[in-house]
Amino acid sequence: MDETNKNGNKEEQAQPEEKDHEPSEQEVEGESPVSELDKVRQQLETQEQETKTFQDRFLRQVAELENFKKRMTREKGETIRYANEGLVKDLLPGLDNLERAVEHGQGGENGQPVVEGIELVLKGLLEALGKHGVTQILAKGEKFDPEKHEAIAQVECREQEPNTVVEEHHKGYFLHDRLLRPALVSVAKALNTKEKKRDEGEVEKEEGDD
């Protein structure tokens, strides 16, 4: 009996102690490692699809921007090319009148119709240019102004005060408030001293003779 108890105690001591089993995170959540991998793979596929969508949208917008730039460049070129269309149309009647004046001159008539025709052309051209903001610069008889006159000579003149425009070689023009070209002029200057004294002496002599 004692041996039986001893053998029983030995068997009890020989049995290993059972350890408490701790469940893994996947087992606690009820998911296996395979399910977690599928989930990650699905997220990657979703992100790849979104990236492709954004890339396609970006490329489409870049293409639209390039087309817009090309269209604007083309329209700008056409605008510059035909910017003077209105001015040219307004000048055409002047060309018509000039052709008529030439025809009159070739017809063997006197020169008066030709002159009148040229004056008509000149008037029409000035009116057409005036519609587009072009105005002539007054020069002859005016005080010299370097802002709108260009002097090419100085002329001694008794009739005009010094620094007065006495001759206009070609007219100057403004486009609105911008100078297109200055008037090319000759300007009066004072008589030199010797000539002035001689003139004064001649006048005094004439007065004494009287």
Description:
There is one protein chain. The protein has a domain of 76 residues: Roll (Nucleotide Exchange Factor Grpe, Chain A, domain 2), CATH 2.30.22. Helix content is 60%, strand content 15%. The chain is built from six helices and six strands. β4 and β5 form a beta hairpin. The model has no long low-confidence stretch (mean pLDDT 78).
Structural class: alpha+beta
Strand content: 5-15%
Shape: elongated
Please name the CATH topology of the domain at 135-210. Nucleotide Exchange Factor Grpe, Chain A, domain 2
* CA-atom Rg in angstroms: 52 Å
Mean pLDDT: 78
Largest sheet: 3 strands, antiparallel
CATH superfamily of the domain at 135-210: Head domain of nucleotide exchange factor GrpE
- Which CATH class of the domain at 135-210? Mainly Beta
Distance from N terminus to C terminus (CA atoms, Å) equals 190 Å
Q: How helix-rich are the residues, as a percent range?
A: 55-70%
- What is the helix/strand order? HHHHHEEEEEEH
- As laid out across the biggest beta sheet, the strand order is 1-4-5
Q: Which CATH architecture of the domain at 135-210 is right? A: Roll
Poorly predicted segments: none
Q: How many β-strand runs? A: 6
Short description:
The protein is α+β, with helices and mostly antiparallel strands and 210 residues long. The chain has a domain at 135-210: Nucleotide Exchange Factor Grpe, Chain A, domain 2.
Features:
210 residues, Nucleotide Exchange Factor Grpe, Chain A, domain 2, three-stranded antiparallel beta sheet, three-stranded mixed beta sheet, 60% helix
